Amino acid sequence: MTSPGLTPVLAEPAGTDSGPGGASARRGPVPVAVLRGLAGLAGLVAVLEVLPHTSLVSADYLPPASETVRTLGTLLAEPTFWTALGDTLTGWGLGLAVAVVAGVAAGVVIGSVPVLRAVTASTIEFLRPIPSVALIPVAVLLYGTDLRSKLLLVVYASFWQVIVQVLAGMQDVDPVAEDTARSYLLGTWGRVRHVLWPTALPYVMTGVRLAATVALILTITAELVIGAPGLGHEIAVAQVSGAVPEVYALVLVTGLLGVAVNLAARAVERRALHWHQSVRREVTA
Amino acid sequence: AGCGSSSSSSGASASSGGGKTTEVKVGIIPIVDVAPLYLGDKKGFFSSRGIKLKMESAQGGAAIIPGVVSGQFQFGFSNTTSLMLAQTKGVPVKSVVNGAASNGKIGADVTGVAVKKDSSIKSAKDLAGQTVAVNTLQNIGDTTVRESVRKAGGDPSKVKFVEIPFDQMPAALDGGQVDAAWMGEPATTIAKGQGARVIASPFAETDPKLTVATYFTSAKVMQENPDLVKKFSEAMAESLTYASEHPDEARQILTSYTKISGDVLDKLILPSWPAEVDMASLEKLAALGEEDGIFGDKKPDLNALFS
Amino acid sequence: MLDVQDLQKIYTGRHRNVEALRNLTFHIAEGELVCLVGPSGCGKTTLLKCMAGLLAPTRGEVRLDGRPVAGPPPGMAVVFQEYGRSLFAWMNVRDNVALPLRRKKLGKARERELVDHALEVVGLSDAHEAYPWQLSGGMQQRVAIARAVAYEPKVLLMDEPFAAVDAQTRAELEDLIRKLWHELGVTVLFVTHDIDEAVYLGQRTLILSKSPTVVQEDLTIDLPDERDQLHTRSSPRFAELRAHVYEQIQRAKHHSGDTAPDPVIADRTIEPVLQKTES
Amino acid sequence: MLDVQDLQKIYTGRHRNVEALRNLTFHIAEGELVCLVGPSGCGKTTLLKCMAGLLAPTRGEVRLDGRPVAGPPPGMAVVFQEYGRSLFAWMNVRDNVALPLRRKKLGKARERELVDHALEVVGLSDAHEAYPWQLSGGMQQRVAIARAVAYEPKVLLMDEPFAAVDAQTRAELEDLIRKLWHELGVTVLFVTHDIDEAVYLGQRTLILSKSPTVVQEDLTIDLPDERDQLHTRSSPRFAELRAHVYEQIQRAKHHSGDTAPDPVIADRTIEPVLQKTES
Amino acid sequence: MTALSVLRRGLLVLGLPAVLFAVWWFATAGSADFYFPPLSTILDSFGKVWTGERLLSDVVPSLLRLAAGYLLAVVVGVGLGLVVGMRRAVRDVLEPVLELFRAIPPPVLIPVIMLFAGIGDTMKVLVIVSGCMWPILLNTVEGVRAVDEVLGDTCRSYGITGVARLRHLVLRAASPQIVTGMRQALSIGIILMVISEMFAASNGLGFTIVQFQRSFAIPEMWSGVLLLGILGFLLSLLFRFAENRALAWYHGLRRAQRNP
Ligand SMILES: Nc1ncnc2c1ncn2[C@@H]1O[C@H](COP(=O)(O)OP(=O)(O)OP(=O)(O)O)[C@@H](O)[C@H]1O
Ligand SMILES: Nc1ncnc2c1ncn2[C@@H]1O[C@H](COP(=O)(O)OP(=O)(O)OP(=O)(O)O)[C@@H](O)[C@H]1O
Ligand SMILES: [Mg+2]
Ligand SMILES: [Mg+2]
Q1: Nearest Cβ partner for A40 among E96, E232, E235
Q2: Per residue in D94-105, is it b (16+ CB within 10 Å) or e — as a string?
Q3: Which end of chain E offers a freer environment for a tag, N or C, measured as fewer CB atoms within 10 Å?
Q4: Are C78 and C52 in contact (CB under 8 A)?
Q5: Pick among C79, C133, C159 to test the E interface (most E CBs inside 10 A)
Q6: One digit per residue, pLDDT tens: chain E, 260 residues?
Q7: Bond into C212 cis (ω within 30)
Q8: CA nearest to E250 within chain C
Q9: In whole angstroms, how large is the CA radius of gyration of chain A?
Q10: Model confidence at B246: pLDDT above 60
């Protein structure tokens, strides 16, 4: 049998292969995106700079961006800031890792066994809305201001984000793909690994992005309320001391952490989901 | 990273209470009132008694009291109304040494009810029918503010209280979201810097010697480690005395655990730090709490709690 | 009416660049019915998408009535090869067919009439309440055809529209397309793999080479305009044309823009050719 | 080997109950190659799914080697009509083909060999790194075929597997299936809409009525075992059989389990019939 | 037959919770721990606390705020998500800013919201929006990005653009993922309802729970937590009901070829 037409073209590296309307994104998509992102942030900074000079709000309570940034500069010079950042990142990273692993594992197991899904549905819905703040006394009771009490809150809150997304994603599998897997006897594990999981992956990515920030939020909140060391604790001290620019500088740091998390997630997504509609449309076409 | 040593090891060493240095965790709120603790720590009053302090600063009682009860912290700092409340509910806590008290200066006490510069409210009497911010409802703030209103001849039942954290009060007051705010330091000083007027000093007006907060421990520690409790109380009493005698040092130590600085630091009003609790003032406070019904149908046992 | 000029399309991917179309130039006059055949993977779908304004060519251009096509032009209907994916899973058959009509604002009654008629001619009157995923492959494909028919387009691009239907239905649908073409004067470009169909249906058959693709032959089908499944297909001329196309397709599997830079021929082969089936 | 007994399948939906299969009974012996034709929507896919153990019948049963089929039995490969959706978008062509082989634990080298061979015979050696969505419809379909071929099944169920490929490739693939069938002794059930194919390919052709579906005819194809695109297709017997099937399919569009309760006929029509194309 | 299936469903829904409650009951039966009272005590106080006028004075206002915040979050999340998901350029510009806001914990965000929205219900509703919005937004963006390209092409070639395209294609195609976001947001909404009522509130479920916690009414506090769980469960039932109607096609499609 002769080979049909498939001629790899190597001569033309940068094609102009974009659909009408989706122009020019090809020529170095990363720098363009970064520039646009920076433009967005610059816009925010401008708004925050101007806002305190209007009558809407007093600069005493919402300092202009320049002052926040200046305060951040002095903060960056202090070693305590870096220790606090380290503490926060540790709690956040560990908590997120545990939540994602547990959420994915539980989600995959529950999602691939219909009976389990039916049995656990009500319990999941019952437990999810229990606010982590209500668990603060429990956490303190069990672990004091230890890292573990931070972890308890972080894991509890972000676990649900992951599991709900995983469950929804596993449900999204194309029946024909599922039938294919079944007819070739892929087995439960094979089906999970090669069919259900890739299908769920876009959902999981969203779940991880949600969980990452929820974990960050809970880490900070736990530090804020319980007093475990970290950025949240620094914020609490600054708040109690009425040091408004410090508060905003620290809040800005948490925000920037969120931006960093998202950048990382997008980078992972470009690799892990390169085959998916959402990514391939933007990368290739 | 994280919290360094695990709580279980420190808890164990604390309760074993040997002759060596024991690490003691104290749950505090990082405010002016706990300055003597830090000062005493710096002066070595604790280490000389074999106590190595570790402050755990939380946002409020919600985190401190469970921590003490469960043994995560050995001591905690709390306002006296909260302690009475805890006791009436059967929380096994016991106050061990004085914490902070009103300085008795009406108009320049540690807490005060502030209003906007151009407010029509001139005295506590005018608070009736107005919205007043307190940091915690059903607690020392609203009971003493009501007392001020009562003493000034107003109707305390007409005051509307809302809960706002101290640090948000200057903004809330300025933005007109509340008519008056019962503030602690440094919020009062900051608000005054922005033109607010202090129209009442509920603590001093309730009792010039009002014991506002004390350090407490759990029944368990009390029972199992009386030696530690004794040493802590002694060291704390010494610190309180030292702080009373050296207000400038106390003011200075604030920079080590808060972010208060500059002008505010200099103008800040300090509480008084007597070494002993004032039982009479506590009885008055308890009576006010009962009157406002915050203890339910129970009555705090002040002798069991504070002596 | 439809002018394809020097069209080239290169797909660039992470590890894989494919020159699907090398250099295509042809013209379709208004009201023509042209069939397009070519080896699998030669770029027929790509060409159709470029002509429909759904894909930007790498080089060259498509003109409709003299104006370059930059986006989907109005009055054009496309039946996609991936018929299953081109139906809205959340709409029943009727709504799927009616949706493009909505913006024409024809009025409820006329819309209804068009939809009913279209569903009837493709043989789906019974299934108008069903959802696409409740239909068989061939039925789904017929819904996609009905949608295009109901739309009453001026230009109709069809990508292997009868691939999933049975022989009998296929014959009926072929006649339907010819009828529509006659009655409404639609310009039709019809991609097919069925050689009989390619000969039976149109006025011209474009044969593409394998990829990188050029037009290998532009064949005029000189059968009488009045066609009929039984007689046309049994005419000697039909057999000749059929055999010729078959031969060209076999050639196309080896011929490409690389192998033979021969000029595009617009001839009509006259010599009798070998027949595939003997009677 | 494959026994279909009294098979009935009713799809129940919210507004729509469809009796896709009314009452099917037939038998396929080990190593047979049987073609299945029937009007669009008559239930061929449904039947295949029931036989593959992917769909539970409403009544009746399917037996494989005497054992009732409750789930997908081992050693069976299915090529789905919705070829595009049956490929995994997240795997390249090679992985798609290799995946079912994994659990056979044949060793890396053998697996590689099988995949390479399968891709070569369907003409996709060049595309093994590509992802399914980078391929044309016909190429996708060939990947699905390659997957089944590489799997070396004992039973092969194919649902219109050549619908999207060109005539030349189709002929090659037909010969490929016959070759596999000869060499490996696979039992094949092959759904098609192409009448020539239905006659050319198999030993028997099952013709289904329209829905509610019964077996309308079970036709033995008495062509010599040695077949060849040119000569077989031009033999008079081929033309006769072809004409017969064509006629039956036309009949099937009107005949169903409701209209005619005639017994299943397993005859071989002998009288010559009208030919579709004339030479 | 139907009675049996109802029973089966009931068992599926209530089985595991019943087991968990039984475990809780026996684990805490003789508990003397102040913070972990016996379940019997909690249930006891549940009856006392949440049946009387509190239902009207605390639960209802909370639910109203929750409803307002949630609906607003759906509107904002889906609206913004459509724009951000459909336009690569918009996404590039807005994403960092949105991510920045998303990472700010509500307890520090609330003061800022208070600056602009005061301390009334508006503030609380906005706090709920500020948290609920994100799962909806993110899922909408991803759902919109994942719209099948053949369907997209179909719409374009038939000139289905603008609002019609949004309504008939984008929203519908993305709806399974949007609904997932809304499901996530529901429980987050309840959590934020509690958090928002920790600030400047004088009534509400969250306010009451926090007051119980502060005044060491531990069984009452647990009963409040229990109520939150029950609330979440009931709302999710409501949600499931709505979802089953809105996504009937989707569930039908996904079940299409599964064995009965
Ligand atoms: N999205 C894509 N990305 C990369 N390559 C593509 C893409 N779409 C098509 N191709 C490649 O372009 C070539 C032509 O594909 P096209 O779909 O146009 O072929 P076709 O003529 O329609 O074939 P068939 O008859 O099999 O449908 C093929 O080699 C295919 O691999
Ligand atoms: N999931 C389903 N739900 C409801 N009805 C269905 C479903 N699948 C198929 N049907 C119906 O069953 C009948 C037979 O469908 P089937 O797909 O088996 O036909 P087919 O013979 O394969 O047709 P084609 O040749 O067009 O592929 C059709 O009327 C179809 O509408
Ligand atoms: Mg194609
Ligand atoms: Mg079918």
Answers
A1: E96
A2: bbbbbbbbeeee
A3: N
A4: yes
A5: C133
A6: 467 778 887 887 788 888 888 888 888 887 777 778 888 888 888 888 888 787 788 888 889 999 999 999 999 999 999 999 888 888 888 888 888 888 888 878 888 888 888 888 888 899 899 888 999 999 999 899 888 888 888 888 888 888 888 888 999 999 988 998 998 898 888 888 888 887 777 788 888 888 887 777 888 888 888 888 888 888 888 888 888 888 888 887 777 544 43
A7: yes
A8: C90
A9: 24
A10: yes
Residue C264 in tokens:
């595009």
| Pocket perturbation via mutation, ligand 2, pick of C126, C135, C168 by most ligand atoms within 8 A of CB | C135
Judge whether A2 is closer than 8 Å to chain C, CB to CB. yes
pLDDT, tens digit, 9 for 90 and up, residues A154-172: 898 899 989 989 998 888 8
Ligand 4 centroid, distance to A128 Cα (angstroms): 44
> Tokens representing B57?
């600063």
Residues C219, C199: Cα–Cα separation, whole Å: 10
Which conformational region is residue B146 in: left (phi greater than 0), alpha (psi within -120 to 50 degrees), or beta? alpha
pLDDT over threshold 70, residue C274: no
Of the ranges A16-25, B115-124, B215-224, which one carries the lowest mean pLDDT score?
A: A16-25
Closest E-chain CA to C82: E150
Q: How far is CA E232 from CA A159, E46, E78, in A?
A: 16, 16, 22
The verdict on a CB contact (< 8 Å) between E257 and D13 is no
d(CA E121, CA D156): 67
Is the CB of A180 less than 8 angstroms away from the CB of D78? yes
pLDDT bracket for residue B61 (50, 70, 90): low
pLDDT (average), residues C121-137: 90
Asked if E259 lies within 8 A of D56 by C-beta distance, the reply is yes
Give dist(CA D45, CA D22) in Å, integer.
14
- Whether chain E has a CB inside 8 Å of the CB on D266: the answer is no
Closest-CA residue of chain C to A22: C56
DSSP E6-17: HHHHHHHHHHHH
CA atoms within a 13 Å half-sphere pointing along the CA-CB vector of B102: 27
Q: Which residues pair with D5 in a beta bridge?
A: D61
* Chains D and B contact (Cβ–Cβ under 8 Å for 3 or more pairs): no
Question: Min CA distance, B245 vs chain E (Å)?
Answer: 35
Rounded distance from Cα B287 to ligand 1 centre (Å): 87
Asked if the peptide bond before residue A245 counts as cis, ω within 30 degrees of 0, the response is: no
Contact criterion met (CB < 8 Å) for E142 and A205: yes
Sequence-ordered alpha helix ranges (H) in chain D: 44-51, 83-86, 93-102, 108-121, 137-150, 167-184, 195-201, 229-233, 236-252
Would an 8 Å CB–CB cutoff place C53 in contact with chain A? yes
Contact call for C and B: 3+ CB–CB distances under 8 Å: no
Closest CA to B100 of B302, B277, B304: B277
Q: Find the CB nearest A275 among D72, D89, D122.
A: D89
How much is the pTM? Answer: 0.86
Total residue count of chain E as it appears in this document: 260
Nearest by Cα to D165 from C39, A38, A143 = C39
C-alpha to C-alpha distance for C28 and E133, rounded to whole angstroms: 52
Mean pLDDT of A24-50: 74
pLDDT reported for residue C94: 93
Task: Fill in the amino acid letter for B109.
Answer: D
Residue D57 CA, chain-centre distance (Å), reads 19
